[in-house]
Amino acid sequence: MNQVKRAKVLVVDDDSVVLKAVTQILQREGHPVVAIDDAVEGLTAAKDPTIDVVVLDIKMPNLSGMDLLRGIKADRPDVEVIMMTAFATVETAVEAVKAGAYDYLTKPFENIDEVSLTVAKAAERKALKDRARALEEALTVRSQFEDLIGQSTQMRSVFKLVETVSHSTATVLIQGESGTGKELVARAIHYRSARKDKPFVAVNCSALTETLLESELFGHVKGSFTGATGNKKGLFEAADGGTIFLDEIGDVPPATQVRLLRVLQEGEVKRVGANEPVKVDVRVIAATHVDLSRAKEQGKFREDLFYRLNVITIDLPPLRDRPEDVPLLAHHFLKLYASKADKKVTGISPRAMEALTCNRWTGNVRELENVIERAVVLTGNEVIDVEDLPPGFQSAPQPDSTVEVFSLAHLPYAQAKRLAMRAFERRYLSALLEKNNQNVSSAARAAGVDRSNFRRLLKQYEVAGRSMKPRVAQADDAEALEAAS
């Protein structure tokens, strides 16, 4: 089964018995442990960037646990700190939390699991924060491309092409499915060009009738048609010196195609009903979700206009072909809509992110944006979970392996294999628990896995048995633990 990275834990306690006990408990769970019996040395050790969680005693000579907590948080605010105390009071807990502690443990320990589970939760919180920070850094890097987001090979190629064509005046044709961000690419080209201080005008060619489209694009003179009560400039004139973005160019009627061709060839427009042309200096960027080459062959799109538009082509990949961009996009939308809703939603759980990554996204980035906005509005927690996603994301994997493999066929092999393996492992663990009447110890024996490791797997895959209760420390767990208890 897949192994996850274990948290590196620093344990600081001047009591050698407790220090040994906690170290053994955490090492048995697979955590690398640095054990130190001096608070001052512990402060230095906590500066190690590989330390994820610190467990420290609240009363120590030379430097108190509270002072050590504040010192650690000052140097490493990202580290999760768990306090240990034999004198727990409400005031102590409040003071520790205010100073930045994640949680606290009371000595003597009633059971082993209280220690390991608290550390596991702190480690998971640290991992979520690290992931969020990494995504933030990636979002900062991409900010030079306006609102275009992606770190996949396909999107890096798009960024490179945008960078190259921005400094020319050539016509650009952007192709891609609805919702892939074609207008964002057009805006990125414009705002990185020498025309950035001039107008950027966008028009959806499929949203208007032929008469209205021609009037909008080219303008009209008074009396040219019913309702033309005065002279009006068209969008080409409004965009003079800048860029016009013609979205869904494939839906333009044949007569309007002829007029567009004149603009591209002669650099001039003629208002509807006018005799004299007007010179314009406009860069044209067009976009379509249809195959213009096929439309040309079928006689639905003028061949000469096609070649005028198709000087430089940018193909935007659908989101299902770049699943590695889903976490980055999801985090971007999470931050956006959490701010708009004024809600403290800071992350997405591993299960929810897995469900998002595995989805086919027929609506592309626009669909993902809607899903995240919905989740932010509905969740009552700081972290979005599967239950906050639309019902389709909460469905259990199909038992039919053929159906499951088909649903992953749009992903790269390595990622599809990883997701399929996780789905198998989750189903295996659930089935094993069911077969053993939800008894964790029996299921672990049947799997041939040590009980503590089996419990860790259940937690990793978020599968819970009804009998998963903390166990009382046994004599064979360590003489030191007996003494500490």
UniProtKB/TrEMBL annotation:
The modification 4-aspartylphosphate is found at D57. It holds the Pfam family Sigma54_activat. GO terms for biological process: phosphorelay signal transduction system; regulation of DNA-templated transcription. CDD domains: AAA. SUPFAM superfamilies: CheY-like, Homeodomain-like, P-loop containing nucleoside triphosphate hydrolases. GO terms for molecular function: ATP binding; DNA binding. SMART domains: AAA (SM00382), REC (SM00448). PANTHER family: ALGINATE BIOSYNTHESIS TRANSCRIPTIONAL REGULATORY PROTEIN ALGB, TRANSCRIPTIONAL REGULATORY PROTEIN. This is Response regulator of zinc sigma-54-dependent two-component system. The lineage of its organism: Bacteria, Pseudomonadati, Myxococcota, Myxococcia, Myxococcales.
